[in-house]
Amino acid sequence: MLPDAQPSNDAPLLAVRDLRTHVFTRRGVVKAVNGVSFQVRAGETLGLVGESGSGKTMTCLSILRLLPRGARIVSGEIWLQGTNLATVSEAAMERVRGKQIGMVLQNALAALDPVFTIGTQVGEPLVIHHHMSWRAALRRVVELLRMVKVVAPELRLHSYPHELSGGMRQRVSSAAAIGCAPALLIADEPTTALDVTTQRQYLDLLMELQQTTGMAIMCATIWRCSMAVCSWNMGRVSRCSASRVIPTRRRSCSPSPNSASPASACRALRVSPQTSDVSRLAVPSIPAVTRPSTCAGRASPRRC
Ligand SMILES: Nc1ncnc2c1ncn2[C@@H]1O[C@H](COP(=O)(O)OP(=O)(O)OP(=O)(O)O)[C@@H](O)[C@H]1O
Ligand SMILES: [Mg+2]
Predict the structure, then answer these.
(1) 124 lies in some domain
(2) Among 31, 141, 182, 247, which one is most buried in terms of CB atoms within 10 A?
(3) Is residue 24 situated within a structural domain?
């Protein structure tokens, strides 16, 4: 079992302050992330929503300093448990990646190496960070694959990524990301490759894992398309627009009996992403959403 991380209400687990990441190309500078600030507390779920190109992926990659060629953090702070990740050495970042922060990349196929088996890829972080023997790591991989509901995990250990369906790859990516019991899981559009029903199952799985492990989840998802799924599951939502995060008020993560339905949470966010006046777009805090017991298993997006 993964060790339980105790959620604390004091200092945030992750605090991003005025982060600016620019991409330097031959044709000019792209301000991919332009003054983003938000925070994630231990054990909470933050949804980072925004239209395509608003800088969600670049924000996620900046936190782990896994930026593409030409991209650089030009200013800002990324505080993780008292350490500013924007300034630490690469060796220190290697200890953070996978161990303190796990990440599910936007493209699950690209995230998995085609020449290594699933067992090797999911087991490697355990060997590196937890100094496990390969035999013990592979036993743990089977447990992890079972946890993310991969069927016949003992057999899948020897499969290559191309032999899996999109949904299975996504689950395998999650298994790799949670293997070392990170305090924070960053999931970048984790459901784009999945149909609506599987999206829902996958997000339920993330929530289940969160309850088991106590990890915080930061989930980046595209504007509108996954909004209903997002509002259904997220504890708090920040909206990313024009490479900035529009501040939202903090609210209690414990839902009240009168909390809003997913539909009203979606309505609360329905503002035109085209408008250039970001201050007008400031959305109210998204109320907590409790899933009515009668709706269990129903795909929520249709209701919104
Ligand atoms: N390698 C790159 N070179 C140049 N510009 C880039 C590069 N990667 C991203 N960008 C630019 O940075 C901005 C933010 O991109 P990002 O991928 O973070 O958007 P996103 O919100 O994740 O979009 P999507 O929802 O489509 O995944 C975009 O304007 C994009 O064109
Ligand atoms: Mg993206």
Answers:
(1) yes
(2) 141
(3) no
Residue 57 Cα to ligand 1 midpoint, Å, equals 7
Question: Is residue 7 included in any domain, yes or no?
Answer: no
Out of 20, 29, 54, mutate this one to test ligand 1's pocket (max ligand atoms within 8 Å of CB): namely 54
Q: For the sheet with 184-188, list strands across it.
A: 101-104, 184-188, 216-222, 45-50, 236-241, 244-246
| Residues 172-187, mean pLDDT to the nearest whole number | 90
Gap from CA of 242 to ligand 1 centroid (Å): 11
Helical spans, DSSP H, in 148-298: 153-156, 166-178, 196-213, 227-233, 262-269
- pLDDT, position 67: 94
Find the CATH number of the domain harbouring 139.
3.40.50.300
Does residue 211 belong to any structural domain of this protein? yes
Q: Is-contact 23 215, C-beta < 8 A? A: no
Read off the pTM: 0.75
For 268, the domain range is: 44-61+95-272
Number of structural domains in the chain: 1
Distance 288 CA to ligand 2 centre (A): 25
